[in-house]
Amino acid sequence: MDETFIADAKDVLAKDTSVIPDFWQNKYKNEASKNWDKFYNRNTTNFYKDRHWTDREFEELRPSHIFTEHKPVLLEIGCGVGNFVWPILERNPDIFVYACDFSPRAVGFVQSNENYMESRCQAFVCDITKDRLADTIPPHSVDIVSAIFVFSALPPEKQADAVANVIEILKPGGRILFRDYALYDLAQLRFKSGHKLEDNLYVRQDGTLSYYFSKERLRELFVQHGGLVEIENDYVVKKLINAKLNIDSDRIFAQAKFQAPITTTDSIDASAGKTQSINNSEVLVE
Ligand SMILES: C[S@@+](CC[C@H](N)C(=O)[O-])C[C@H]1O[C@@H](n2cnc3c(N)ncnc32)[C@H](O)[C@@H]1O
């Protein structure tokens, strides 16, 4: 992002000085699951396209990459109707995928999809800010957690709880793959007055929340609060050019990877196993 763009974006955001009243803020936060469920009632499985780009952006998702000495386990949090999950299952014949969402309707769509096989996939309802993932998934058993456009739906004060929840099921050396909306994204700049709850947090027309992340916020959540190691943390800028209207504008995403550290205790406990070197870090394999 260049300096002029950032200065212009800051000017746009500074003009929106009002925030919506507490009553409505609480209502949107308390009814988040209901509002997402209504979203899937309206849109069924037709809103998002399958995310075929994910293994281009995250090498961990390629079958030939890491975690190859055992059957990898992945958890997709906020899985929606499975648009991230299906391409991963198709490309990785050995992987097992857990998928959770707090919209029962979305989880129902995943479970009734023709690609859903209980031997390869388990979808379940879970609010990641308050329901323990470890009640469904064995603690420290997951190699990869994908968080694709889900943290933006959480109020900032609940984001750290979701991180702690995920860490409980992540293996030592396991990774969180993160992609979401970033600060100054076109969608943030387009919010009209009357949608802001606080800086970088907005409510859409349909009542769902949208938070816009900075790299610093991600570091605070995953490294300072979560104790994870930052492997990657950057902005991805996609230029949209509308030649007819002579407008070019930016979609900006935050893309990051964080890794659970391998403690001395873990290394001793697992001393009967082997280790495999991944990007200068040691990851335990079965
Ligand atoms: C933008 S959609 C992304 C869906 C999916 N990850 C994908 O890439 O297609 C965000 C999803 O997060 C889910 N979600 C929001 N807050 C959640 C929470 N607290 N716990 C679990 N799921 C949540 C919503 O129901 C919705 O399905």
UniProtKB/TrEMBL annotation:
Top-level taxonomic group: Eukaryota
Protein name: Uncharacterized protein
Organism: Kickxella alabastrina
